[in-house]
Amino acid sequence: MYFVYYLRSINYLDKFYIGFTADLKKRLSNHNAGTTDHTSKYKPWKLIAYFAFDSKDCAIDFESYLKSGSGRAFLAKRLLKY
């Protein structure tokens, strides 16, 4: 199983991160431990949403979509408004 996930910083509410992994629990732990350069300065992180795929290619494509302008609009309109 492959996961695309959306994180939000607990201390910096305007900071978020979209990523891809095969081990979601371990990846979130790494983000919060500061072992990921891009996210270490905004830790700790909270998992807001994740999407599971049985295809690695589909997960990578969806991650790319969420990082695009229309993907960010989708997250804002359909997922994060609540």
Query: What's the CATH class label?
Result: Alpha Beta
How many domains make up the 3D coordinates? Answer: 1
Average pLDDT value?
Answer: 94
Largest sheet: 3 strands, antiparallel
The CATH topology name reads GIY-YIG endonuclease
Key features?
82 residues, alpha+beta, GIY-YIG endonuclease, 3-stranded antiparallel β-sheet, 3 strands, 39% helix
Describe the structure.
The chain has 82 residues and is of the alpha+beta class. The protein contains three helices and three strands, in the order ββαβαα. The chain has a single domain, classed as 3-Layer(aba) Sandwich (GIY-YIG endonuclease), CATH 3.40.1440. The chain has helices at 24-33, 56-66, 69-79, and strands at residues 2-9, 16-21, 45-53. Strands 2-1-3 form a three-stranded antiparallel sheet. The mean pLDDT is 94.
Please specify the SSE layout and strand pairing:
Blueprint: E1 2-9, E2 16-21, H1 24-33, E3 45-53, H2 56-66, H3 69-79
Antiparallel strand pairs: 1-2, 1-3
Question: What is this entry, summarized?
Answer:
The protein has a single domain, classed as GIY-YIG endonuclease.
